[in-house]
Amino acid sequence: MTSPDAVPDPTAALRPRLPSPVQEVADERFGRRGVRLVLKRDDLIHPELIGNKWRKLAPNLAAAAGHTVVTFGGAYSNHLRATAAAGRLLGLPTVGVVRGQELADRPLNASLARCVADGMRLHFIDRSTYRRKAESATLASVLRGIGAEDAYVVPEGGSNDLAVRGCQALGAELRGSADVVAVACGTGGTLAGLAAGLDPGQRALGVPVLKGGFLGADVRELQVSAFGGPRGDWRLDERFHFGGYGRTTPGLEAFAADFEERHGVAVERLYVAKLLYGLVVLTEEGAFSRGTVIAAVVTGAPFSE
Question: Which of 7, 80, 274, 302 could lock 96 by a disulfide, CB 3.0 to 4.6 Å apart?
Fold first, then answer.
């Protein structure tokens, strides 16, 4: 396949807003503890390729120029939607391999319908096969099944070496701006790159939105693959998944609505709300010393049908 360095970067034509802006919010839940909260507004990078989706997809899309892009996700995957939108904007054919063969016989939900409207071809596979998708034989079989043996494959969530190095720029943009940089985590690629881009003395905090306790090993593996070894000072707090991926509670909904009313910032529920809620709890627990500046990365925006 052609080296990404040998062709122009097609994503430059999309005019991303980089570096993304930093917005301070005055919130007494932080202020009374002597802590300042700023928002890293990655949701403003591009209206359709939002937040960490831009940072992870852009280098992969540059590498994929001239090829079909095949990627993976569940029925409500933000990553599938972003990849489909990117394909439409850049004229790249895209295929989304969706977890759950049973979904093929059901009406598409709003998220998958948006993918189709953006030109993505959907291919449903059973959950057992999906769990083995990273195995070379299984992946080859899936690609044969969709007639895309020469496709450029982006993993679930977009987290590969190119994506992790792309997220390193996020940390670099926040050098000198915060003591702690916090981000919600799905596959761990954003945290792995973010931590690598920060200055010594800055700390990265990941808030997983999935249950399981496996993400620490994944982040370490991603850093080894992308950089050859561990990078940066980072840790995870696993308490704020609210039941797992795609799940919320009435309490989280109320928290997000209150934050929106206080600060005039739309709060995406599956990632960003859990991050902000976790930061409020940690601040009230005294996890941050007085004078600490926390930057919360706004990685996405609410999905509008």
Answer: 80
Q: Residue 254 is encoded by which pair of tokens?
A: 């109320």
Q: What is the pLDDT at residue 184?
A: 97
Q: How many CB atoms lie within 10 A of CB 119?
A: 14
Burial classification of residue 237, based on how many CB atoms lie within 10 Å of its CB (0-12 exposed, 13-18 middle, 19 or more buried)? middle
pTM equals 0.91
Spelled out in words, what is the top-level CATH class assigned to the domain 68-150?
Answer: alpha beta
The segment(s) of the chain belonging to CATH 3.40.50.1100 are: 4-47+159-297, 68-150
